[in-house]
Structures are given as C-alpha cells and as structure tokens.
Amino acid sequence: MNGAQIDFQQLRIKHILYKSKVRSVLYGGVYDENFFTASGPVGTWFTTVGMPRYGLQAEMRELAIINQDLNATAINLFHLYKSGRIDQAHDGLKNVETKSDRFINILSQLERKLKDSPLSIYSS
Q1: Are 33 and 21 in contact (CB under 8 A)?
Q2: Cα-to-chain-centroid distance, residue 102
Q3: Which of 34, 52, 58, 77 could form a disulfide with 92 if both were Cys (CB 3.0 to 4.6 A apart)?
Q4: What is the DSSP secondary-structure string of 14-64?
Q5: C-beta separation of 93 from 26 below 8 A
Q6: What is the pLDDT of residues 20-66, one digit of tens each?
Q7: Is the dihedral of CA 47, 58, 64, 41 positive or negative?
C-alpha cells in the first residue's frame, strides 16, 4: 500500500466513524461537541494531511466542501433531535447517507487518479 492509499484509507475510516457517531447521537447516544468541529478526527485529517498533501487536487477541495456540508447537516439534525423532532431527525439520515456516498465516490476517484498518474510520487 502506498502513501496516498494509506492516507485515504485513514480518511475512509474516520468518515465511517463520523457517520456512526451521527447515527448514535440521533438514537440517544452522547453528543461530543468537539468531535463535530474542525478539531475532530475528520477535520484534523483535512488540516494536517488532506490539504497539505493533496490540496492542489480539485477532488480534495470538493471533499472538504462536502465534509463541511455534511457536518452542517449533522448539526442541524442534532438540533431537530434535541428539540423533540426525532422522526424528522431520523429522516434526515437519508441526506447524510447520500452525501456520504458522494464523499466516498469522490475519494475513490481521487485515489485512482493519483495511483494512475505517472507523475505522482505516490504511485507504486
């Protein structure tokens, strides 16, 4: 596994954990405010790995935007849940899944692009 593949695998794992945390909060789990900020695991990855190493790639910039949108959606769903509109919050999970699928698809595109690029220092 090359450097880019390891970086992107780490992001996939953090993203899956993020989605699990969203679902957990919306089904009565503990809300960890810090987890859902720029200093949480996904935000930290973008700040320390994603943008410094791959920020020139359009896909990485798009991933960062989708991540921000996903986070705003999650925060909105948490507010719905907290205000007693639990069914509405649960219905919003469909939107989280749609955005997550897009995130993973773009991440896979970027991974393939860098793997297949003859100029990439991350190629095998």
Answers
A1: no
A2: 10
A3: 77
A4: HHHHHHHHHHHHHTTPPP-GGGGSTTSHHHHHIIIIIHHHHTTSHHHHHHH
A5: yes
A6: 999 999 999 999 999 999 899 999 999 999 999 999 999 999 999 99
A7: negative
Is-contact 66 102, C-beta < 8 A? yes
Locate 33 and state its tokens.
């405010």
Pick from 81, 85, 78, 51: which is nearest to 67 by CA?
51
Domain boundaries defined on the chain: 3-116
- Here the tokens at position 21 are 């945390």
Using the structure block, give the residue that is written with the tokens 């909060």: 25
pTM of the predicted structure, to 2 decimals = 0.89
Token duo for residue 28 = 């009565």
Cα–Cα dist 119/95, whole Å: 37
